[in-house]
C-alpha cells in the first residue's frame, strides 16, 4: 500500500491570507500527481494533474509544484477566500507492475477560511 | 447534466442486508473506478474497470463485495451481508485513458452514503 502523506491535516486561515499544503509520496514508479478539491456535499473536483519533475501549474489563485525526485508536491493558495474552504486531496498515480496503476489518495488537508 | 451520477445518494440498511449502488459515468469515458471514503480518511481504492473488464480489485474488497460493468457503460457495486464496518461514502469516478494520455483526471460522482445499523 502506497504511503501518501499530507500536511497539515487541517488549518484555519483568515480571509486574504495565503497558505500552502504539502503532499509527500514514494518517488519510485511515479507516473503523475493529481490534486483534487472536495467541498462539503459536493463531488471531488480535479485541480491539477502534473507529470514532470519541476512542473508548476496555476489556476487562478491556486498553484502547485512537483518534485518527483524527492517525492513531494506543494499546493499554494494566494489570498484565501471563504469559497476556498474545502478538503484538498493529493493522489500520486503510480505504476504497480503487470499493467496495474491507480491513484492512491492522501487523507487530505481540510482548509477553513474565516471571513 | 452529463457528469457522473450515482444512485442512491443515501442508503440506510440493517446489518446482514444486501445493498447495491449504481454509477453512470461520463459516456465517452472508458475507465470507471470505485472508491470508499470513511471519516478522516481519503478515498480508498476498491476496484476499476477498463471498458467492461474489471482490471484490478483492492485487497480491501472482501468476497462480500462485487462490482460489474456490463457492456462497459454503467456499473453496479453490490455489498452482501452488510456489516457496520461497511458504513462509508462510496464514490464512483470515471476517466478517459488513452495510450497517449494515461494520467487523465478523474471525474467523480457525489457519492452514495451507506449507513449500516
Tell me about this structure.
The complex is a heterodimer of chains A (115) and B (117). With 115 residues, chain A is an all-beta fold. Chain A has strands at 5-7, 10-14, 19-24, 30-38, 45-50, 56-59, 62-67, 72-77, 86-97, 100-103, 109-114. In chain A, strands 2, 4, 5, 9, 10 and 11 form a six-stranded mixed sheet that branches. Chain A has a five-stranded antiparallel sheet with strand order 1-3-8-7-6, with no helix packed on it. Chain B is mainly beta and 117 residues long. Helices cover 0% and strands 48% of the residues of chain B. Chain B has no helices and eleven strands. Chain B has strands spanning 5-7, 10-13, 19-24, 31-37, 44-50, 53-57, 65-68, 75-79, 88-95, 107-108, 112-116. Chain B is globular and about 45 Å long. Chain B starts with a strand and ends with a strand. In chain B, 35% of the residues are buried. The chains are: A mainly beta (115), B mainly beta (117). The A-B interface holds A 4, 6, 31-32, 34, 36, 41-46, 49, 51, 89, 91, 93, 99-108 and B 3-4, 33, 35, 40-45, 48, 55-56, 91, 93, 102-111.
